Amino acid sequence: MNEKSAPSLSAVESANSSSVSSAAAGFRGWYMISVLTLMYVLSYIDRQSLALIVGPVKKDLGISDVQMSLLIGLSFVILYSILNIPGGYLADKYTRRSLVAGGIVVWSSMTILCGFARSYWQLFVTRTGIGVGEAVLPPSVYSMIRDTFPRQQRGRAFGIYHMGPLLGGGTALFIGGSLLALATSGRLHGVPILGSLKPWQFVIVVPGLLTLPAALLMWTVREPARTGGGIELNAPTFLDALRCLALGWRLQLPLWLASTLFDLAQGGLTGWLPTSIARAWGIPLPVIGHTLGPMQMILAPSGLLFFGYITDRLTRRGVVDSSVRVAAVCTGLAAALLASLPWIADHKTAAVVYGFVVFFYSAFAMAGGTMLAQIAPSQLMGKLAALFFLVRNLLGLAMGPFVVALLARTFFEGPLAIGRAMVLNFAVCAFAGAALFALLARRLRQGESRGVADETLAA
Hints:
Layout: H1 9-18, H2 27-48, H3 54-61, H4 65-72, H5 74-82, H6 84-91, H7 96-114, H8 120-134, H9 137-148, H10 151-161, H11 163-184, H12 199-211, H13 238-247, H14 249-281, H15 285-316, H16 322-339, H17 347-375, H18 381-397, H19 399-411, H20 417-449, H21 454-457
Helix pairs in contact: 2-7, 2-9, 2-11, 2-12, 4-19, 5-8, 5-18, 6-9, 6-18, 7-8, 7-9, 7-12, 9-18, 10-15, 10-17, 11-12, 11-15, 13-14, 14-15, 14-17, 14-18, 14-19, 14-20, 15-16, 15-17, 16-17, 16-20, 19-20
């Protein structure tokens, strides 16, 4: 697209001021969020079921911690990230609910195939297939939320949606613990197909089988109308998206860096937490799953709902940096709390501290999507979300487990090495992310004080 047809920054900002009606979203909008959140939960159950069974998989396949870190992170993320680009293109052009429904069928089918893997490379390749199906989810969903909710409701909308990873991770731990206990009890002996699987394979296969029918739910969701906001983009391209990023780099750069650090911290934590607990205190994996699972399923949604409500309340009062201001404070608290864990000897006390970490850190998940929707035009939301997740996933989610394993091998020794490396990675990344969000909040306030009205920053 040539220079004349590409949107200027002022045009983008003006578009955002009117691209979504100020009228509050009704029942259909909140129902849509409920269904999309459920899909996100299911996607995380399918991708995170591996975290609880690191030990059995390592033993059965004869692999190292570093190889396991690549299996947890890179195998899934590599195609998931790359295919976000065509996923963003499709989300801006075709029916988004159909894209999500098709993605569910693909990722659940590949999850089932993962459970039948007999070697490291078979498991690695089938894990990449999960990423193929899930690649359409982020750009499609971000675009749907952007076109459904006015700005004063987006904190809650994105907060509810981003319960998915935390609810899904918690549910994966709880269900995985139950499935692992069932598989090791011998009660599946003689059951066709499932009875022939090893316990770790059974833990992977069952969630995939349960997810497959969920695709039908997407047909109960109404496709939201795309909002143009008064600017005409003639078949907007990724070049237009990159131009939009370049024009707004002072806001976009700290947002993208902070969000990538969030995924780097979160990826290392979720990938290695059950294993580090088992190595530190010798607690059985099913018990770990039954403890961490409900904790995440209760505290993460509570934090997202609470901080989403606070963000929307501040937004209605005219606070232009509400989402990132809340996230900066909460993330700093979460980092400080997690950094204290190596000095806590009692596992019950450590569990309480970790519960506060989950509660406060949830604010970061809400802020990223809310802020992107605040500064992105509707016509480019799918493509910008695709690029957003490409960077976050390749540099953050894929590298989190690997960085922890590398830190453990380089700087620490003994059974506590992986846990100490996990805490170090989380604390450094979370503190840096909080600082970047604080910088972004200051720039937003400075823009407003120079006469840039709140409405020019977002709808």
